[in-house]
Design a protein that fits this description.
Elements: H1 4-8, E1 10-17, H2 23-33, H3 54-59, E2 66-74, E3 77-85, H4 93-100, E4 105-111, H5 118-129, E5 134-139, H6 148-159, E6 163-165, E7 167-170, E8 178-181, E9 187-189, E10 196-198, H7 205-222, H8 224-231, H9 238-250, E11 255-259, H10 268-278, E12 296-305, E13 309-318, E14 321-322, E15 326-329, E16 334-337, E17 341-345, E18 348-352, E19 354-355, E20 360-364, E21 374-376, E22 394-400, H11 405-419, E23 424-428, E24 431-436, H12 439-453, E25 457-459, E26 463-464, E27 467-470, E28 474-483, E29 490-500, E30 505-509, H13 521-534, E31 545-553, H14 561-578, E32 581-594, H15 599-608, E33 612-619, E34 622-630, H16 637-644, E35 650-660, H17 663-672
Parallel strand pairs: 1-3, 1-4, 4-5, 5-11, 6-11, 30-31
Antiparallel strand pairs: 2-3, 7-8, 8-9, 9-10, 12-13, 12-21, 13-20, 14-19, 15-16, 15-21, 17-18, 17-20, 22-24, 22-25, 22-26, 23-24, 27-32, 28-29, 29-31, 32-34, 32-35, 33-34
Length: about 675
């Protein structure tokens, strides 16, 4: 049994950040200083322990979330930290999304020079959505131009957070040597890599006193217990400081901010102390875990292990998971048998016999459970909140080089689709089309098909994943499907209405009096969904429609599920044609950083790409432009931007929304086929 005391010392946390903020470097230092790794793996050398895929090591980026377990002693107590390092590139945001769903807390890493960057905002909003408390680590303070105060203001303004500054840097740039802790009033330094604690430099005492007063004021504004203690005239003890900060952090009322340079091994030990002191344990959840309660666990990630086969990562919310036990998948109603259980360290596995409430483990043997589904006791079925996954915005066609690759491609698609819910596959007139969240996402998927599954294929040029929808409402469309060719025929008649909605698909049944037997109603729905997959303009999937089945007719002998499915599909297509169908395209939120002298050229170029400039600003002496630009106009932009800015401009982009394609552009797309 997992005791309450033991659970109170467990931290299930993730590390999240914009790409290149130093997230994986910070995670590698955590592994080193907690004794999990004997040597420090560097991202730029392709030696990071948590970047275990070949594609991650080759590119020096995190693609898939990696889990590990380490231990850290803070305030005299040993804590178990289940750590997940998440990707920073926008194409792999779904990895962050599903990890945040099962984590209790997170460390957000910021680049001390760049501050809050676009993907930082994205992952912050995801954490907001799942109510995940955070602490911040402002990294790279050894770099020229690093500015803790500016980063803190960006956290306040861009993220809407209440930053609680916990440390001040000692020295700047190359002279950065450590941090001054505002709670203890002590200085942490790392001469020759050795962590020492001593007096704050005399020249910083006034700044530390001022910052500490701000810390006390912020705590008092948000925590009555702390304010009463302070107003009593008694200086709060360090334990009282820690207790107040923890209460407010767990409630997401404030966000403690720490700083350092992970690459230079400075600031990591105080950050680990903060993880133990301030981030929540599983017991701080709204429904605290209980080993004695019936099992409830959420599958949040699936990987294909070369040696062990299919592994399903689960977070246990209550009860115990035992090797060999029988459980119920309450989403699909099927029973599953638990095979072996593993604790995971990146690419390595440690077999265990059981796991309790609050744990994150990998399970072997689950054959019919996918991401977002619930495992529970057969006697106490429960469904935990699932996850929504975005539709692809970009596609490529894959053409196999030989018949021998057909089976290998099918296996690769099956495994990769299980691992990555944002990877989609469809058949387009006999051609296999794969979809993803960006060019890098597709590049990685194709590379893995070749490397891991030996699929040899020709890959087409990336193309935009357009969608279709309708502008107008159609009140009545009638379709009669009748086919007679000897023997039993086919007969189905449906009358339906169609109207635009914001997103997705809805089906409403208003048939009364048995005009269509109940067993055929789902077939009409299925027929409409079949037609949605192909669209009517250019074969793109439809979205944003509500279908209302109004009336119909059937034949006691010739009517069947197939007949009503066909009738529903044909009626839907006719209704769409009458409802002014339009083409939708993915629009990206683009942030461009450029030297001031090239600002005009950058803005002019974005406008020429049908972009809408939303605003701008200044960061580190450079100009920043925010714009919304159709994805179709952004292919090849990296080279064009380099050309117009003499190689000094950089950009990031993320999916923002779907928008109607202007009629002249839509006509060209449809004509091009």
């Amino acid at each position: 049994m997992t005791t309450t005391l033991a659970l109170s010392k467990v931290r299930n946390i993730g590390i999240m950040a914009h790409i290149d903020a130093g997230k994986t470097t910070t995670a590698e230092r955590i592994l080193f200083f907690t004794g999990v790794s004997r040597r420090i793996g560097e991202v730029h050398d392709g030696a990071a322990a948590l970047d275990f895929l070949k594609q991650e090591r080759d590119r020096g980026i995190t693609i898939t979330s990696a889990a590990t377990t380490c231990r850290w002693t803070a305030d005299g107590a040993e804590h178990t930290i289940n750590l997940i390092d998440t990707p920073g590139h926008v194409d792999f945001t779904i990895e962050v999304e599903r990890c945040l769903r099962v984590l209790d807390g997170a460390v957000t890493v910021f680049d001390g020079v760049a501050g809050v960057e676009p993907q930082s905002e994205t992952v912050w909003r995801q954490a907001d959505r799942y109510g995940v408390p955070r602490i911040c680590f402002v990294n790279k303070l050894d770099r020229a131009g690093a500015d803790l105060r500016r980063c803190v203001e960006m956290i306040r303004e861009r993220l809407g957070a209440v930053p609680l500054v916990m440390q001040l840097p000692i020295g700047e740039g190359d002279a950065f040597e450590g941090v001054a802790d505002l709670v203890s009033g002590r200085a942490h330094r790392w001469p020759d890599g050795v962590h020492t604690i001593g007096d704050v430099p005399s020249g910083m005492l006034a700044d530390v006193a001022r910052a500490r007063a701000e810390l006390i004021e912020t705590l008092g504004d948000h925590d009555e217990e702390f304010m009463e203690q302070y107003l009593s005239g008694t200086e709060p003890s360090q334990a009282q400081f820690h207790a107040a900060i923890r209460r407010l952090t767990v409630a997401s009322a404030v966000t403690p901010v720490f700083c350092g340079s992970a690459y230079r091994n400075k600031g990591v030990q105080p950050l680990l102390d903060a993880v133990a002191r301030y981030l929540p344990s599983p017991l701080d959840a709204a429904s605290p875990p209980d080993d004695g309660a019936p099992l409830a666990a959420l599958a949040f990630k699936i990987v294909s292990d070369r040696y062990l086969g299919r592994l399903t990562f689960v977070r246990i919310y209550s009860g115990r998971l035992m090797s060999g036990a029988s459980v119920l998948n309450s989403v699909n109603g099927r029973k599953e048998r638990i095979g072996k259980l593993y604790r995971v360290h990146a690419g390595d596995r440690e077999e265990i016999g059981s796991a309790g409430a609050g744990d994150i483990v990998a399970v072997m043997g689950l054959k019919q459970t996918t991401t977002g589904e619930t495992l529970c006791a057969e006697t106490h079925p429960v469904v935990l909140e699932s996850m929504d996954f975005p539709d692809p915005v970009i596609e490529v066609a894959v053409e196999l080089r030989s018949k021998a690759d057909v089976d290998r491609l099918a296996g690769a698609i099956r495994h990769l689709s299980e691992e990555d819910p944002s990877f989609r596959v469809r058949d387009d007139g006999g051609q296999t089309v794969i979809g993803g969240m960006g060019e890098l996402h597709l590049e990685i998927l194709i590379d893995r098909m070749k490397e891991e599954y030996n699929v040899e294929a020709n890959v087409g040029r990336p193309r935009v994943a357009y969608r279709e929808t309708v502008r107008n409402r159609v009140d009545k469309v009638v379709h009669l499907h009748r086919k007679q060719s000897g023997g039993k025929g086919q007969y189905a008649k449906v009358q339906l209405a169609l109207e635009p909605i914001g997103d997705g698909y809805e089906f409403v049944n208003r048939v009364t009096g048995g005009r269509i037997p109940k067993e055929f109603i789902p077939s009409v729905d299925a027929g409409c969904q079949d037609a949605m997959q192909a669209g009517v303009l250019e074969g793109h999937e439809m979205t944003g429609v509500r279908v209302t089945l109004l009336d119909g007719d059937f034949h006691p002998v010739d009517s069947s599920e197939l007949a009503f499915r066909i009738a529903g599909s044909m009626a839907f297509k006719e209704a769409v044609r009458r409802a002014s169908p339009v083409l939708l395209e993915p629009v990206m939120a683009v942030e461009v950083t450029t030297p001031a002298e090239h600002l005009g050229a950058v803005i002019g170029d974005l406008s020429a790409r049908r972009g809408r400039v939303e605003g701008g600003g200044e960061r580190g002496g450079a100009r920043v432009v925010h714009a919304l630009v159709p994805l179709a106009e952004m292919f090849g932009y990296v080279g064009d931007l380099r050309g117009m800015t003499s190689g000094r401009g950089v950009f990031t982009m993320r999916f923002d929304s779907y928008a109607e394609v202007p009629p002249p552009v839509a006509q060209k797309i449809i004509a091009a086929g």
